Amino acid sequence: MSRAYLTDEEKANKPEVTFALIRRIFSWLMPYIRQLFLVLFCILLSSALNLFPSVLTGRIIDDGLIGRNMSVLIRLILLSLLVTLCGNLVGVAQSYLNTWIAQHITFDMRNQMYRHLQQMSQRFFTTANQGDIITRMTSDIDGVERIIANTFSSILSNAITLIVAVVMMYSRNWILATIAIVIVPLFTIPTRHAGKTRWSLTREAQACNDQVNGILNETLSVSGQLLVKLFGKENEEYEKYRSANERMIRLNIRESMAGRWFMVVLTTFTSIGPMLIYLIGGLLMMRYDASLTVGDISVMVALLGRMYGPVNQLLSFHVEWIRSMAMFTRIFDYFDMPVEIKNADNAITPSAEANGCVEFSHVDFSYDPERQILHDVSFKLDSGHSIAIVGPSGSGKSTLINLIPRLYDVTGGTVLFDGIDVRQLDLSYLRQHVGIVSQETYLFNGTIRENLLYARPGATDQELEDACRKANIWDFIVAQETGLDTLVGNRGLKLSGGEKQRLSIARVLLKDPALLIFDEATSALDSISESKIQEAIDPIIESRTSILIAHRLSTILAADEILVVKDGCIAERGVHEELVKAGGIYTELYETQFRRAIAAENG
Question: What phi and psi values does residue 366 have, to the nearest 5 degrees?
């Protein structure tokens, strides 16, 4: 019943239904147009077959019962049963076709939505609500399936049923048919009003019940009851609960009685129609129309009874229509979001082996026009060398490295990879040759082997072992009972922070990128874990082109050059000794952050 009425939120957010929207919806249906026509035929045939037994009822009464002809009676009863069976079988076929079409359309939608979301930039995922993204992929598209499988077919079926019923009624007696057409909508309006009243009470009672549950959850939890005791609020909380509980009881009683009155109204008004048909039909049969039979009147009553349901549902058509359009609009809103990061029309895929050389030339970047993140950043990293990037929190260090694999695009200037603007390179090629070990390690809920093979599916066990040894994680793996087949749990929950980080390093090494980036890979780890990761990182940066965002002095000293970033600009650059003597930002960082780290390590 609750789906028969719009909520205040739905009324406020009704979508604008345009021809373009309708055409776009039907574009998803067009690949299955033949199946749709078959569904339409099944609905038409099923509606006629399901109404035909009502017509046969008249002949059963007139020719069989009143005519006292047993053979005709048996034949008509068998025919009625056969027609009913055929109608049900056609209904099954229609249901299968509806489900088949709905499933295939939602299959297409899910695939296109997933592909589209995969192409969205990092900006989208950092600003959009994750729950909203999942809702679009699940609930909204599931709703489309319900619309196609149920709503659209229900509207067609009800409309056709009414048309066929009206034609059959007028073929019997136009006077009784006209009376039926007039009284059916009149008698459905009171029942709808009663139903709406009960629905409102149900929603109000549910809201009150939620309030009661909220009080219980807050005040009877471990922390909640302690807070109540410490502040001496037992009486206040009791009164709050008693008041909400009392209101919920009153609403439950009103809802229950409204349900009783609803059934009284429903049964009373649906009974008036047949009584009127009997009354007027009897009057016509007895005084004005000798050709009208008892069977004819019975047919009219039976057909009238079959009209109540379709009329009620069609009166709610605008509600389902608005909900359907709103659901499609939400889905299309996501489809229409532009893909910011995409391949150029003639994207370059170099045939030569990648060297990992990176150059920033007067790079500007902002997430939005009001807040500039990077200002005129320029530097070059030659192949085989390493750069350490240091600076205060929020200075733009991570943003800077995210521009290299095009997680974002620059708003000014250029980022070059092996001398080519990254916006001109093929995205797959670029990201294949750039490896990033981030401070927030993500592991899939599977085995160690599966997480490693995500980087290179065809890697051999020996290659997995080599990568794990380089990442200083192999000893831990062989110590596990199932080795590489050890489950890591959801997001790597079964591993420590250091183990997850070293596993992510092994995964990146297995990828074998030309450029390796460490984005504060040892932050938020204990000293033992940090030391093991550092033992893995040090030989790596000596052997390949590397960029390191680091807070550990030994890591910074291992780099060929140090860039000091502040407020989105490269404030200082050089080697450790020069920067310490300069007495600038790096000196301040050294005196505070780095020296504390050294003292803690030595302590």
Answer: -150, 145
